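Give me structure tokens for this 98-residue protein.
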Amino acid sequence: MKQKLRNISTQVWRFKYVWTPLLFALIIGVLDTNSLMRRYEIRAQNEALRAEIAAYEERFEADRKELRALRNDPDVVEEVARMRLFMKTPNEDVYIIE
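Here you go.
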């Protein structure tokens, strides 16, 4: 048994220049806290957050335009009151169909 282990250790030690880069690649690629896999996950999360920010910025601009229109145009105020708040003038009836 000891002889077998000694032969295995001799064979492994013989290829130390092959095992060292493989061990280094394993540590850097998978086991390290700043591994390549972790960096890929962080990059994907970063891209998702950037897309979410862009969507929020688009929504912000649309809301800003709507607010500007509400402040300056009485026709837009009337449209919002009728469509979203279901308001009516005294001489008309409103029917809500869903």
